[in-house]
Amino acid sequence: MSEIPNNVWENLSIDFCGPFPNGYYVMVVIDEYSRYPVIETLTSLIAKSVIPLLDKTFSIFGIPKEMKTDNGPPFNSEEFRNFADNMGFKHRKITPLWPRANAESERFMRTIGKAIRAAQTEHRSWKQEIHTFLRNYRATPHSTTNVSPAELLFGRKIITKMPNISTNNQADSEVRKEDHKNKSKIKLYFEKKHSVKVPDFTVGDTVLVKQEKKDKLSTPYNPQPLTIKNKKGSMITATNEQHKDTSITRNSSHFKKVGKSKIMTDEEIEEIIDDDIIPNTPLRRSSREKQTPKHLDDYVR
């Protein structure tokens, strides 16, 4: 569970939604303190397209201290690194293949995606509908802070066509209290639903990493053991002892600790992961112990 930033427009999250049937992508920038979203449309996900839109956003709201992104092509380019250095903000990349690390923007992406699909289905201008959606979203109290994004960012309520929702002005401590309380509820619900186990990895452990299932014969874990070299929260970096120049960084849920350093066979991997795949699997009917019916007790062959 992440802590709320110290102030508005200091920590931003950025993500993309699309492509949509018309070829457009939607770039979403969210302030992690106020949850205020800024949306821009573009036709290609390259640094030359993304940087001018971010420059435009910064000219309106100011330059942040930190920007959190995924590992997409626009953010791995030399152009974007130069842009971040020139602007003076820290570029932070989330753990690969772990979108929950950028949960604020990921959650908003699902909402904006529904609004766009609804507009397309009803044959309405999706760009116009985005403006309507944003106006109402920015003016509505957020579920974790109980204050609207616009009020937190600008220090005032904005007028919309929606009925005015009366809320008391809350001090920063109250905002943090509400944010922490609601995030804790979400965290407990998620952990209960997914039976989350607290990872117990340490530097030096030998682990297997999950791999993409390409066919029915593929194993869930790569048989090549790795060694954990760095651990930062739930983000783990592991390397191959035979090829130390290669490393892989994933969330801890992508790893399985093992006690062997050699390349493992498929049978050994299946034995390790068996409990995760089919825990407490009941016996099949054909394997159950058969009992003779009581009315046949006096039967003699």
From TrEMBL:
SUPFAM superfamilies: Ribonuclease H-like. InterPro entries: Integrase_cat-core, Retrovirus_Pol_polyprotein, RNaseH-like_sf, RNaseH_sf. Residues 278-301 are annotated as: Disordered. One of its GO terms (biological process) is DNA integration. Residues 286-301 have a biased composition (Basic and acidic residues). Gene3D superfamilies: Ribonuclease H-like superfamily/Ribonuclease H. One of its GO terms (molecular function) is nucleic acid binding. Residues 1-157 form the Integrase catalytic domain. PANTHER family: INTEGRASE CATALYTIC DOMAIN-CONTAINING PROTEIN, PROTEIN CBG26694. This is Integrase catalytic domain-containing protein. It comes from Mytilus coruscus. The lineage of its organism: Eukaryota, Metazoa, Spiralia, Lophotrochozoa, Mollusca.
